[in-house]
Every structure is written in C-alpha cells, then in structure tokens.
Amino acid sequence: MARIPPSVAAVRLAVRRALPARGLVLVACSGGADSLALAAAARFVGRDVGLVTVDHGLQEGSAARAAEVARWAREAGLDPVQVATVSVAGLPGGPEAAARTARYEALTSAAVRLGAVAVLLGHTRDDQAETVLLALARGAGPRGLAGMPAVKGIFLRPLLDVARADTRKACAALGLVPWEDPHNADPSFARSRVRGSALPALVDALGPAVVANLARSAAQIAQDNAALDGLAADVSDMSVGALAALMPAIRTRALHAWALRLGAPGGALSHRHVEALDALVTAWHGQGPVHLPGGIQVARAGGALVRVS
C-alpha cells in the first residue's frame, strides 16, 4: 500500500476531526491551495459533501475560474456543486470587507437553500497568525487578538492547526493545480503586506515557530474570552454601584453585551463606544449621554445607566 504523504494526512485528519457526524457539508472553495486541499480532504473523509465557489466579479476571467472549480468538484464526486455570483456594489467598507460580506451572505444562503449543516472554510494556521498581527496593529483588544474562531454558527475552520505549506504540498501530492489569487500579493491590501513582508520578517528574526505560537496564542485568548464573557452574561444590574464593583474585564464585556441588547449593531459597536459607557461609571464628571451606533443614547441618571433615546 502506497504511503500517504504527511501533508495529505495532516489535512485529512484535521477535516475528519471537524466534520459533523451527519448531514450535508459544503466546502467554500475559491480554487486556491488551501480551499482546494480542504475540498479534496472533505470528499475523501466525508459521505455527504458539496461545494460552493463564489464569483465576486472583481477580476477578469473570474466567471471562467469559478466554472473550472465547479467542473473539478463535480468530477471529484462532490455533490451538490454550485457557483454563487455576487456583487459588492453598495456594500460598506473597502474592497476586502465588501467582498467578505458578499461571500458570507452567499455561503449562508446556499447552506440554507441546500439544507447544509455546516460550511467548511479553508483558513490555515498562517491565516490565523496574520489575523493576530493585523489585530495587534489596530490596537485591538482580546476579541481581535483571539483571531478567527474554529466554529462560528454553521461555519467551521478545520485547518487552523494546519500550515499553509502543507495545503500546498497536499495539492502537489494529489496532482491538484491551485489558482494563485493576485490579490494575495497586492501590497495595497494590508493582509498582503503582512503575508509578504511582516510575517516573513518575524520568522527570520524569531524562527519558524512564531507562526504556530501566534495561532496558539489566539486560541488561548479565545478560551479566556469565553470564560469572561460567561461571567459578564450574568450581569443584569446596570446600576453604577453594581457595575463599579466588577473587575474591568467583566464590566466592559457586560456593557458591550448590554449595548447589543439595546439594539446597537455589532459590526459598528467599537471599543471607543464601550470605553465611553465605562467612563459613565468610572470617570463620571457630569458628561452628557454616550451616542451608540443605531441612534441609541445612554446616560447616567438616578445612579444607573439608562437609555435616553
């Protein structure tokens, strides 16, 4: 019996550990090495595996590439296979953010329509390390430093413990030819600069283990976040006295959760909003109401935080 290449075995093992016990699973596949290796492994390991490839329409020939990915998937035995064509016009944020929003909406829609129990995403250990570095550069708190979750709703990331080099080696071992997205080398994108310059510089200075260590740190921070969020979820008393008695890490999480319950959109609620709410408790000097996203205003009145509009 031919020996399975270690890279192929690593990807298959990661997928086997993540796959749900039953139900249709869809692989989100761009045709790049990470998602192509993921799709091949899911097809080998799983019994009920389909594929969705998203055409953002942002590059010349994108429709043809999406059709080629779909053709390969059908020949490989994945079923169902769908091409989702999206438009990023009018979506908020820059090109990357708009494309991401459109892509996740398309994948969610496909999962609902097809009755899938999960959608697999091809983010690797290297992607996680890049995410942590970008979060550090933004001055993000623990939520940002936790990186990408392995599980979020129907979305699963089985390869967060697999190196990008292994997905490339797996594709080569299986005779798969991945598509190289030119955006990944475009220095106008922050992630591309981190991938092409910042992370390699860290590896040169600190050794190759820095990538795994960054990803491991993200996982540890995510565990701490879950514990603190659980404690904050029990906080319902918005009186100043009760809030002031809490440890800052729990109080700010409780204020964040309360702002969401008031109707503030999560995507627009930033640390600056939470800091302003916290100042109503810890640095009170008669300041006016805090303006939250969604037209919500919160003030300190009668010894408590209350919504005033």
Structure report:
InterPro entries: Rossmann-like_a/b/a_fold, TilS/TtcA_N, tRNA_Ile_lys_synt, tRNA_Ile_lys_synt_N, tRNA_Ile_lys_synt_subst-bd. The radius of gyration is 22 Å and the shape is elongated. 53% of the residues lie in helices and 12% in strands. Helix 2 links the parallel strand 1 (25-28) and strand 2. The mean pLDDT is 93. The protein is built from 12 helices and 9 strands. It has 2 domains: 6-206, Rossmann fold (3-Layer(aba) Sandwich); 235-307, no CATH class. The protein has a 6-stranded mixed β-sheet with strand order 3-2-1-4-6-5, sandwiched between helices. A 3-stranded antiparallel β-sheet has the order 7-8-9, with helices on one face. It starts with 5 loop residues before the first helix and ends with a strand. By secondary structure, it is α/β, with parallel strands linked by helices.
| CATH architecture tag of the largest domain | 3-Layer(aba) Sandwich
What does the overall shape look like? elongated
Low-confidence stretches: none
Helical proportion, percent range: 40-55%
Number of helical stretches of at least 4 residues? 12
Q: Give the percentage of residues in beta strands.
A: 5-15%
Strand order of the largest sheet: 3-2-1-4-6-5
- CATH superfamily caption of the largest domain: HUPs
Q: Mean pLDDT score, rounded? A: 93
CATH class call of the largest domain: Alpha Beta
Largest beta-sheet characterization:
6 strands, mixed
Number of strands: 9
What structural class do the secondary elements suggest? alpha/beta
Assembly context of the chains: single chain
Number of domains: 2
CATH names the topology of the largest domain as Rossmann fold
Which sequence of SSEs, written as H and E, runs from N to C? HEHEHEHEHHEEHHHHHHEEE
Rg computed from alpha carbons, rounded to a whole number of angstroms:
22 Å
Alpha-carbon distance between the two ends: 71 Å
